[in-house]
Amino acid sequence: MAKHYISEITQFLQDYKKNHPDVEKRQREGRARLWDKAQDAELADGFKQARVRQNPYVYQNN
User: A Pfam family matched by this chain, by name (predicted)?
Assistant: First the structure.
């Protein structure tokens, strides 16, 4: 049976997770705190309507 190649970074991550078993839980908590938020459709629509069109080249004088 052939042994599969495991890169150094994969080995590092596996060792890190083995030595820090709570890391995935903390990652999920951090993601929930920063990213997994309920979206307000009305507010998002207001942002979309308030958007100001920008010229393709910012420094172009019109």
Answer: DUF3460
